[in-house]
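tool=predict chain=A
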Amino acid sequence: MSDEFSRIARYFAPLAGEEGLGLANDAAVLKPPPGRELVLTVDQMLEGVHFLSGDDPALIARKLLRRNLSDLAAMGAVPMGYLLTTALPAGLPEAWLAGFAAGLAEDQKLYGISLYGGDSSSARRDISLSATLLGHVAPGTALSRGGAQPGDEIWVTGTIGDASLGLKARFGELTDPTGYLTQRSLLPEPRVGLALAGIVSAAIDVSDGLLQDLGHICRVSGVGAVIAAEAVPVSPQAAAFGADMLEARLTDGDDYELVVTVPPKHAGALKSACGALPITRIGHIVAGVGVEVHNEAGKTLRFGKAGWQHF
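tool=predict ok
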């Protein structure tokens, strides 16, 4: 494996924007767009926790960026660029680095972002990665988790549970004949570019499970939520596994869809803002605490967990 500086020059300097100064200095120099506020988010991916040892390095790189892009989407921010940190074990093949850099380059082009800088280090065994993404919003328009009010409707983009079942397929716990669920696990689709300011009262991306992440909105807003299990959108591929996978779909996470709360009078504006992106009403905000899931008969369903726990 090449040394640290030649690795940076070969694989990462070509990804740098002008703010990164060719990755030849101690820090980047960033000039925010005039009259805009900066939005920053950081996320990490660890081998054996967030990705498997044999995963395609290009897909690992793209998912690393997309997890952060999803956070920016949940704040209504326009992506700008990112800082990258890597801790890589000795002996990691050059082909892995080349694939990882190619994945970064692909999504940089797709989302109009560039590399500003970062840090590289060594790891004793497993790969450790993190990215800090920067975006911008008009002053005072950043979306938050804290504005939901009783009577607001709860909507979610896309479909929920595909990534969870895709991971099970990768572990051989179920079959995925089309590969669709596996792909959703490996490469999420962050919902960037939606003009939701002034329409939604609260927003969050679904990373740790729909119930848990919606619960974060409830906690910060000081409200409760009721959702209908049958209303939660499901892909045909996930629906094939029936009700047995309902808890996994609602609690395992890794969807990177958006769940938003919306005053009923803004429902039409929400649909217009989402355009061709499917968005589904799944419930409503109530006075109270926590999230309840009801079946078609109105009975409250109980689950063993609300979502992914890191500890």
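The radius of gyration is 20 Å. The chain has two domains: 4-137, 153-301.
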